[in-house]
Amino acid sequence: SHHMAARALLAVVFPSLLLVVAFSTDDGAFGLQPISRRSFPKGFIFGTASSAYQYEGGVMEGGRGSSIWDNFTHQHPDKIADGSNGDVAVDSYHLYKEDVRLMKDMGMDAYRFSISWTRILPDGTLRGGVNREGIKYYNNLIDELLSKGVQPFVTLFHWDTPQRLEDKYGGFLSPNIINDYKDFAEVCFKEFGDRVKHWITLNEPWSFCVWGYAEGVSAPGRCSPWEKANCSAGDSGREPYTVGHHQILAHAAAARLYKQKYKGMQKGKIGITLVIDLMLGIKPP
């Protein structure tokens, strides 16, 4: 329902006017000081974010093909804490206008969302054909965002490898993925680049490698069976590095393509989202 979508948005964003910060006073006491937009540097962007599989739902609608997350959640529901899946999720496929209204009401500047590879290319390849219904959905979402003054930040890959490519050559375990990903990215640049000015090639490639190919807790659920009982296939000592290598090459191929062929005309930016773990040493006594 739209209430679920509202809760999901509220869970990942903090309205700037409601934020407070603790500060130390001269007498050592702590107080609360409101934060406003003026507390942040000029140009700071307030926004919220989602990923296609976690938000859209509509997995069997609009010509979408299956991804490794469809297979993973249905074949291994025990690997999901509550056994749920993204078949419906918060139904943003149908409720995107309500979602955008919530963003506008909360004062958001931007919305980062991912494009489902298989909603654009159902079998993962350009040869298999472009799904115009998928193009229409994202055009509608982008236009709705812009009409409400919310800038789209688009992630091209948020871990949802097309299942057909996983079956065909092992997905990101194969260098074949690089050209198929580049083809997908180019379709997106062509179709949406007149309005999308911020592109993200990959979401957290480290997480995709480790959780999907070393720990087996995310799709495609691979790891060394001799080491972890939760996996039936994989090699935790090798596959994460192979997948990481191919992700870097896929990122480079898409970024180079955009900069050489589209950036001059579309005037956008392209980058990658990396995850970090900040470690601070214990202060010596």
TrEMBL record:
Residues 1-24 form the signal peptide. GO terms for biological process: carbohydrate metabolic process. InterPro entries: GH, GH_1_N_CS, Glyco_hydro_1. Keywords: Disulfide bond, Glycoprotein, Hydrolase, Signal. It catalyses: Hydrolysis of terminal, non-reducing beta-D-glucosyl residues with release of beta-D-glucose. One of its GO terms (molecular function) is beta-glucosidase activity. Pfam families: Glyco_hydro_1 (PF00232). This is beta-glucosidase. It comes from Aegilops tauschii subsp. strangulata.
